[in-house]
């Protein structure tokens, strides 16, 4: 059964604690926290102190997506802030295996994110060492973008690679997932669905979260 990880990037930053409670009530499985540094991606978002303060609000796992340069410098800080899953980008991690081992040394799950133009070839030698691959279906940096349909083939191929290796690695999909296409994305092979504006821009966040969960569980 696929999981739902609402992205706080699209939430009301003045009501983050309340909005976490809303998606939790709606049945969310995780909370997706996008960390941006204004260098790797052209935006700045949540940081360590905010994540630490939000950790007190919910017991849902924190799915922390680091869109930052030199993520290896901050792994311990994000663990201490309450991260349960830490995902770093292949594109900024020249010593990817070392970074993965560093994450796992803190007894949290390790994920690798890849941008739309990044080939699967770049991560095939670390698949054995990770818990999740985050496939970006938009170019990272901003919420509210449309899903790049060509990513369908990447997700299907990644699912095949994982199955052929007999691994227990989840595929997370982030970017442009809406009620209208969530079932299609799951059929491609997604195990974890990230939805931001499609949830938090709705008139009723709780009801919208429930609609996503109903479709995911169908």
Helix/strand layout:
Blueprint: E1 3-6, H1 16-26, E2 31-36, H2 48-54, E3 62-67, H3 75-81, E4 85-89, H4 96-104, E5 109-114, E6 132-136, H5 151-165, E7 170-174, H6 182-188, E8 192-195, H7 197-200, H8 205-216
Parallel strand pairs: 1-8, 2-3, 3-4, 4-5, 5-6, 6-7, 7-8
Q: Could you explain how this protein is built, in words?
A:
With 218 residues, the chain is an alpha/beta fold. The chain contains eight helices and eight strands; from the N terminus they run E-H-E-H-E-H-E-H-E-E-H-E-H-E-H-H. The protein has helices at 16-26, 48-54, 75-81, 96-104, 151-165, 182-188, 197-200, 205-216; strands at 3-6, 31-36, 62-67, 85-89, 109-114, 132-136, 170-174, 192-195. Strands 1-8-7-6-5-4-3-2 form an eight-stranded parallel β-sheet. Helix 2 runs parallel beside helix 3 (75-81). It catalyses: D-ribulose 5-phosphate = D-xylulose 5-phosphate. The active site is at residues 34, 174. One of its GO terms (cellular component) is cytoplasm.
């Amino acid at each position: 059964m696929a999981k739902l990880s609402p992205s706080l990037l699209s939430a009301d930053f003045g009501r983050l604690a309340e909005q976490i409670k809303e998606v939790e009530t709606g049945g969310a499985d995780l909370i997706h926290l996008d960390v941006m540094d204004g260098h790797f991606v052209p935006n700045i978002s949540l940081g360590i102190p905010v994540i630490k303060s939000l950790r007190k609000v919910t017991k849902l796992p924190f799915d922390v997506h680091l869109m930052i340069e030199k993520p290896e410098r901050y792994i311990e800080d994000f663990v201490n802030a309450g991260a349960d899953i830490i995902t770093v980008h292949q594109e900024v991690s020249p010593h990817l295996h070392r970074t993965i081992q560093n994450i796992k040394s803190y007894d949290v799950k390790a994920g690798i994110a890849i941008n739309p133009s990044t080939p699967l070839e770049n991560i095939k030698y670390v698949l054995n060492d990770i818990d999740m691959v985050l496939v970006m279906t938009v170019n990272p940096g901003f919420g509210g973008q449309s899903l790049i349909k060509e990513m369908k083939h990447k997700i299907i191929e990644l699912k095949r690679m994982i199955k052929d290796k007999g691994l227990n690695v989840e595929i997370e999909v982030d970017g442009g997932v809406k009620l209208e296409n969530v079932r299609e994305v799951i059929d491609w092979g997604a195990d974890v669905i990230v939805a931001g504006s499609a949830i938090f821009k709705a008139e009723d966040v709780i009801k919208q979260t429930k609609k996503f969960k109903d479709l995911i569980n169908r």
